User: Which sequence fits this backbone?
């Protein structure tokens, strides 16, 4: 794998001589083109190419065309790709464990609470912590609240007992599933549908737009609107590549990304609502809304994860998130 990545990086270098070639940015991501992230990446490409007057070309590779979850981060650090938008859970395995604060169950009561973190001092500080890894963090893209899916009803916390649930590689998500009595299974996003189809895993968590575009509703009979977690991405670039760009090109990229971020965050809620409607209309999956009493039971089962993860995420980071969101543990 390392040899392939180094070769890809070498082949991406411009050839000397002749007209000055455009600066090429390979932007890789793992979800479908018609998801909020996929659409935002395309919007960024369009804005950059229009505003740079041909000086910059953005090639977007969606749906794990180039690399899977773990591979793409290594590819970015090696310079085989220049830009990614991985989910925030991907930075814990990279060594920036503080990012797993975003995975704490029921931390965000609404989108405004989430944005209070990403748009505030804590969000900026977390992006800065990527720089020693050779990564420059540029923006956060929101994708809304996650729901649960399985082939049996998930009404109460006890319904998870013994289920093999796919998660991203996050110790917080691992603890979350274990708190529910489930067996967490770390797996690349591109492998989830096949794993559900083969029975390797019993269920998963994600936002409706990702579940719908991967046709998970064709394989899972039940989904529960638990809204237990919030999915978001960080738009990141190879730091050496970024620092080597002409200042005016960086300005153009930053302005285009600011507009693409506004677009991404604006469409996330509507895209997920439309996906949920489409899942309902398919008639293949029963969608359940927990009662207030059931929701209280979920929260009671999951709150110990916050305390358990203090040594992993950092108590100071968790407390900073609490202050930003106005979070208080349910009684």
Assistant:
């Amino acid at each position: 794998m390392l040899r392939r990545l180094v070769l890809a990086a070498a082949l991406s270098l411009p050839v000397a001589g002749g007209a000055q070639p455009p600066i090429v940015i390979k932007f890789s991501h793992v979800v479908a083109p018609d998801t909020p992230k996929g659409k935002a990446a395309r919007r960024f490409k369009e804005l950059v190419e229009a505003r740079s007057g041909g000086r910059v070309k953005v090639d977007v590779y969606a749906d794990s065309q180039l690399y899977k979850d773990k591979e793409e981060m290594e590819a970015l650090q090696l310079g085989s790709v220049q830009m990614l938008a991985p989910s925030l859970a991907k930075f814990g395995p990279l060594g920036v464990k503080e990012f797993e604060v975003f995975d704490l169950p029921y931390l965000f009561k609404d989108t405004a609470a989430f944005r209070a973190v990403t748009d505030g001092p804590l969000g900026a500080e977390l992006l800065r912590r990527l720089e020693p890894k050779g990564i420059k963090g540029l923006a956060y893209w929101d994708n809304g609240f996650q729901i649960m899916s399985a082939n049996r009803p998930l009404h109460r916390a006890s319904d998870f007992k013994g289920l093999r649930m796919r998660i991203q590689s996050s110790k917080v998500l691992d603890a979350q599933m274990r708190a529910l009595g489930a067996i967490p299974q770390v797996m690349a996003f591109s492998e989830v549908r096949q794993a559900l189809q083969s029975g390797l895993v019993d269920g998963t968590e994600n936002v409706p737009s990702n579940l719908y575009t991967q046709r998970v509703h064709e394989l899972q009979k039940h989904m529960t609107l638990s809204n237990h977690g919030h999915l978001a991405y960080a738009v990141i670039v190879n730091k050496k590549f970024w620092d080597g760009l002409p200042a005016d090109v960086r300005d153009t990229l930053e302005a285009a990304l600011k507009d693409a971020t506004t677009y991404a965050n604006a469409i996330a809620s509507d895209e997920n609502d439309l996906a949920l409607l489409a899942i309902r209309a398919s008639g293949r999956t029963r969608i359940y809304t927990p009662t207030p009493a059931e929701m209280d039971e979920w929260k009671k089962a999951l709150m110990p994860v916050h305390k358990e993860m203090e040594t992993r995420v950092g108590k100071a980071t968790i407390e900073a998130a609490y202050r930003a969101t106005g979070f208080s543990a349910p009684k």
The mean pLDDT is 93. DSSP finds 14 helices and eleven strands in the chain. The first helix runs from residue 2 to 11.
